[in-house]
C-alpha cells in the first residue's frame, strides 16, 4: 500500500491528475457548470483526479489517526480528507479533485525543497585506506585495515594516509592533519609522536605501532559523531500541521453550525472546501523554492526550507578558522635579516636556493614568494621534517627549524631565541650561511578577502561571532583579532567543537556553524544551521551542511540572512492572505453566494495569487553590487601580483 501511495505522490501522476481535472471541468464535470466541450464520456473525468491525488492525503490522515497520539492525530491531511469525502457524498466531484490536486502539488513542492544527498558518510569511510602494510618477521604483508590489532607495526610510505591511529616507532616525517584537526600547518612527527587515521604522511617513510582498535580510531569516532548528529536533528513539522490542530476542529464546528442555521448540506460542504488551507499549503514551499532559486543564481545551494527558516532565528555564528576565514595555505608573512651585509632579498634568495628542490608546503611557499626562477646549486641534502642544505656559489646554505640549525653547531644567540618565542602562531624558517645565522622567514595562513566586513555586518544583525579552531589558541586569537571576533576557542578536536555547540544550544542559543573541513562535519550536522564553504571544502563537510556556498566568498553569509528574513516575511504574508481569502469565502458560503464548485475555484485563485507573490522572491535584489565583498565573484581578489625579486648579493 505504501508503495502505491508513494507512486501516486510522484510528479507524473500529479500532472495526469491536473490534466483530467481540467478535462473534467471542460466536459461539464463541475456540478452546476455547463460543458464547454460536448463529448459522450460516460463518467465524470474529475473522478480520476480525485482517486489519483486523493489516495495520499486519505492514507496519511488514517495513518495519523491510528498510530499517532494526542493532537498529532490531527493533521492537514485529515481536514483535506473530510472535505473530499463530503464533496463526494454531495456529488461535487470537481471540488473533491481540486482540493486533492492542490494538496498533491503542495506535497511535491515540499519534497523538492527538503531533498538531500547522503553520500558524505561513505566518503568519510573511504578516507582511511582499506589495506595496511604490516611488518611481520621482517616482511611486509598487506592485510585489511579492520584486521589490525593493538601492537601491530604498520609501515606508511610518503603520500599515503595513515590507516589507523598509532605511535611513530621508526623514522620521522611531516604529516598533514588538516582533515582531522583543521590545523593548516604541517606537523612534524618523530619517534614517540601520535598519528591519526586518515591524516596524510607527506614525506618520510615511517613505522607506527597500532595503539587503538579500528573501531576506536579518531576517524571512526568522527563518522559516528556525524551519524548521531544527523539522527538527533529531526525535521520540523510542516507549517500546515502546526496549525491543523486549530483548523480541523474549527472547520468541523463551523460546518455543523452552518447546517443547523441554513438547513442546507451544500453550505456545510462548501465551508469544508473553502476552509481547506489550499493556498496555505502552497505558501511555504513556493516561497522556499523561489528563495532557493534566488540563492542558486548567486552560487549558493540551500538544501531545505528548514535551513532558511532556522537561519532567520540565528543569534550565534560559529566560524571554523582554516579554509573558512583563512585561505588554508601557507604564505610568507615576514622576512628578517640578522646581518647588515645581507638584505631581506638576500635571505629570500638563500632560502629559495635551498627549497627549490623540495616538495614541502613550506618550501613551495618560499619559492613562490621569491619568484627568482632556477638557482644553480649542488650538494642538496634534506632531512624530512627539519630542513634543507645546499651549496650555492661555493658557500653552504642551511634552512630549517631551530634544532636542525643547531645540529650544524651554529650558534643562536639568546636575543634571537627570545624573538622566536613571539612566533608561536607561525612557522619559522631559520637561514644560515657558512655556519652563521643570517636571517629568518616566517610563514602563516592568510585572511580571506571580505571576512572582516562580513563579521562587522553580522554583528549589525545582532549575531555574535565565535571562532573555533583545531589550531593552537594563540593562532586563533591572532586571526580573530584581525577580523574583529572577540570569542575564541582553540586546540579543539571535532568532538570538542560539537560539544561546545551543544553547550551553546543548551543555553538557548540558535547556532549557525560555518566550516569547510571533514573535522567540521559533526558540528555542521548538529548546528541549527550548517553552512559549508564549497570551493575548497571537502564533500563530506558539504554533505553535512544545510547550506553550501559554492565559492570562497564568505561575504554571502549576510546575504543569506537577508534572504532568510525576506522568505519568512513572504511566507507569513502568504499565510495571512490565504487565511483572509478563506474568511471571505466562509462569509460568502454562509450567504450561499458560493457553492462547492465555485468555492473550489476561489481556492484556485487564492493559490495562484500566493504562488505569484512567492515568485517575486526569485528576482529580488539582496546583494549590493557596489559592494565588492558581496557580489559572490571576488575569488580573483586573492591572486597576488608579484614581480620578480632581485638580490643585492647577486
Annotation keywords:
650 residues, alpha+beta, Calcium-transporting ATPase, cytoplasmic transduction domain A, Calcium-transporting ATPase, cytoplasmic domain N, seven-stranded mixed beta sheet, six-stranded antiparallel beta sheet
The CA-CA distance between the termini, in Å, is: 83 Å
- Biggest sheet statistics: 7 strands, mixed
Shape descriptor: elongated
- Which segments are poorly predicted (pLDDT under 50) over 5 or more consecutive residues? 113-122, 229-237, 625-645
Assess the beta-strand content as a share of residues: 15-25%
Give a topology summary:
Blueprint: H1 2-8, H2 11-26, H3 46-67, H4 76-89, H5 93-114, H6 120-125, E1 131-136, E2 139-144, E3 153-156, E4 166-170, E5 173-176, H7 178-181, E6 187-189, E7 194-195, E8 200-201, E9 206-210, H8 218-232, H9 239-262, H10 265-275, H11 278-297, E10 300-302, H12 305-311, E11 316-320, E12 331-337, H13 344-355, H14 361-370, E13 378-383, E14 387-392, E15 395-400, H15 402-406, H16 414-420, E16 427-433, E17 436-444, H17 451-460, E18 464-468, H18 473-483, E19 487-489, H19 494-506, E20 511-515, H20 521-526, E21 529-533, H21 539-544, E22 547-549, H22 556-590, H23 596-615
Parallel strand pairs: 11-18, 11-20, 18-19, 20-21, 21-22
Antiparallel strand pairs: 1-2, 1-3, 3-9, 4-7, 4-9, 5-6, 5-8, 10-22, 12-17, 13-14, 14-15, 15-16, 16-17
Helix pairs in contact: 2-3, 2-5, 3-4, 3-5, 4-5, 4-9, 4-10, 5-11, 5-23, 9-10, 10-22, 10-23, 11-22, 11-23, 12-22, 13-14, 22-23
What do these coordinates show?
With about 650 residues, the chain is α+β, with helices and mostly antiparallel strands. It has 23 helices and 22 strands. Among the domains are: about 90 residues, Calcium-transporting ATPase, cytoplasmic transduction domain A, CATH 2.70.150; about 110 residues, Calcium-transporting ATPase, cytoplasmic domain N (3-Layer(aba) Sandwich). Strands 10-22-21-20-11-18-19 form a seven-stranded mixed β-sheet, with helices on both faces. The protein has a six-stranded antiparallel β-sheet with strand order 2-1-3-9-4-7, with no helix packed on it. Strands 12-17-16-15-14-13 form a six-stranded antiparallel β-sheet. Helix 5 packs parallel to helix 23, helix 12 crosses helix 22 and helix 13 packs across helix 14. The longest helix is centred in the last third of the chain and has 35 residues. The N and C termini lie far apart (about 85 Å). About 50% of the residues are buried. About 5% of the residues have low confidence.
